[in-house]
Amino acid sequence: MKSVLFSRFFILLPWILIVIIMLDVDTRRPAPPLTPRPYFSPYVVGRGGARLPLRRGGPDSGPGRGWEKRNESRPHARPRPEPPLPTIYAITPTYSRPVQKAELTRLANTFRQVAQLHWILVEDAAARSELVSRFLARAGLPSTHLHVPTPRRYKRPGLPRATEQRNAGLAWLRQRHQHQHQRAQPGVLFFADDDNTYSLELFQEMRTTRKVSVWPVGLVGGRRYERPLVENGKVVGWYTGWRADRPFAIDMAGFAVSLQVILSNPKAVFKRRGSQPGMQESDFLKQITTVEELEPKANNCTKVLVWHTRTEKVNLANEPKYHLDTVKIEV
What domains does the chain contain, in order, with CATH numbers? Predict the structure, then answer.
């Protein structure tokens, strides 16, 4: 019996050794690196670390497009374009005098800081002067240079001044927009005399003029200021030191007119015949509006934003009759 067992054991022993040797060799081999299955997170990181859920793509989704933001924001509607900024047309009559260039320089320094402004400079002369032409060329402003002389018979003291020049500016404006009667670009007309001082805030106020806007003027009419009297947003009278019975007791620097109103009233001009001194503003405004339609600006006409300063008369008593300097300087 024992001999049979020993004989079977020795028969199986080589195979057992072979199996043990193979197992030992296999355990000594370096294990292959594990390659984990890819993991797709059902979330994506949004702004501020927020986790946004994803959703499966539709049947048309291609490779790499299997996951999408579930609450993906819809494309925003395009913002509406801002309406164009109304152009301010400033009509400035001017005439030759020792302080002319100084006055125009001060005015140009103000106008350069006003967006979308077109300066219409009208000389009281039979031809454009070299001084004003050079000045405008260097001013760096959108401008138009006109000229028209005042007839000699209208240059007497006490008669209205700059009538022809303001009318020339109106004529140029109407001719420029003659084919845009109904679709003219928004604009505002303002009579900017060269001897006044203007706050930049004034141009912001007048730019929203719908028809005719008004505001106070400082240092005019023998008073510190003149202004329209306003109640409940409407002009009801005038605070003035001279002829309060005028239909529009206002200074030339105290109002602005919409471009559309100017184009809709082609016959509205400053008149010579029948116009009394100091009545030009009233005679002009009566042709285009009424007191009830006026639009008070400058905080219901309680802020002064323009001053009728006027330059002091220059003392040239020592100026030689003939030019004695070796160079010629433009002043």
Answer: 87-215+252-299 (3.90.550.10)
